[in-house]
Amino acid sequence: VTDRGRLLGARDPVAVLSALQQRTSEKWRRHGHHVLPSYIAEMDLPVAQELLTAIGDRLVVTGGDLGYAYSFTADSPAQRALAGWLRDRFDWSAPTDRILYYADVMRVVEAGIDAFSKPGDAILVDLPGYPGFFEALRERDREVVGNPMVQRNGRWQIDIAGVERACRDGVSAYLLCSPHNPTGALHTRAELAMIAEITSAYRVPVVCDEVHSPLVYPGRRHYPFAPIAHRTKTLTAVSASKAWNIAGLKCAFGIPGDAEVLEALLAQPTRQRDGVGILGVAATEAAYTKGGRWLDDTLRYLGDNRRLLSRLIATELPEIGFTPPAATYLAWLDCRRVADRFGGDLAGQVLRDGDLAATDGIEFGREGFLRLNFATMRPLIGEMIRRLADGLGTTVSDRVSAAA
Length: 404
Ligand SMILES: Cc1ncc(COP(=O)(O)O)c(C=O)c1O
Hints:
Number of strands: 15
Helix content: 40-55%
Oligomer: single chain
Mean pLDDT: 94
Bound molecules: pyridoxal-5'-phosphate
Structural class: alpha/beta
Radius of gyration: 21 Å
Strand order of the largest sheet: 2-10-9-8-7-3-4
């Protein structure tokens, strides 16, 4: 509790950094202490007390309730908790006997690729796309059909005409990321309805990765694809791992849209659904039943980070384009106006000269972009900008230190 309070109240970037450098996750261990990590999508914010209590109960109160997770059963408390969350937040009544446990979201996506296509098939992915999608498709010998997103009316949007073209040309499935990593785009209900009409007409099944769906900023709304999918076959992937910052606990869910997709998943090797962590199940149940208030507070904090980041980029790095995300804590930076100076290796450049670890756009299929993660303590936002400027060979004004 002391550490939580100290972290959130701290104003000095050096103190915050030295506290965070005690962490043992990949994000904090891959590089030396001189590097500010802003790449892997996990938050630096402390985990909600409600989740820590649920985990602590498993560890302490019961004397160590650490066996295999209760995960091959329908209608367990965490499945009911997720169903309640989906109903309350998104008005989606997903039957609990159709909610399957998986160890993580990518296993659900992989199960969807396996269920909806075969080696050699073409799969539609919006660009930029989450690197894990490309990896899963490569491993399964699927061809990627990339559909570049477009910037219209100050938002990143799916190119719906491109979706139609790809469906007409015979893709076997569509990996839809909603809300979208890395742009933070929140697809509107109208856009999703148009996509559903197209995928229904061409009978293209959709894997809907909705892992970022709880991370939507106030005033906007996430619409799950499955309830508006018409006749489209769907498999939706969700978990509490991003929004409540428990990715290391290994608990996610796959929600097949109908009995046929459910049957296809149940026919896959059981090991594909193995590896769920019992502490993850406990924390996930707590997240969906008791974690709403913490999430709303966290979204306010992240929203302020987003505003600060946006202001600092506009004033200090005007050559960089940034459309603030409507969801997620990810910043997709258009660095194309400066990228030429660095021979394309943008992330390598800011790591070398700025001691900032960011993710290169190339990993998402778009050159000239960088992705930053702003789910960190407020004093580190200015630090991030200072290091980004160093990396790109410019300097910042005193406003950056004042912003902390
Ligand atoms: C869109 C998307 N899908 C999947 C994942 C990976 O989730 P998991 O670790 O549960 O496989 C991420 C992680 O950043 C993500 O952004």
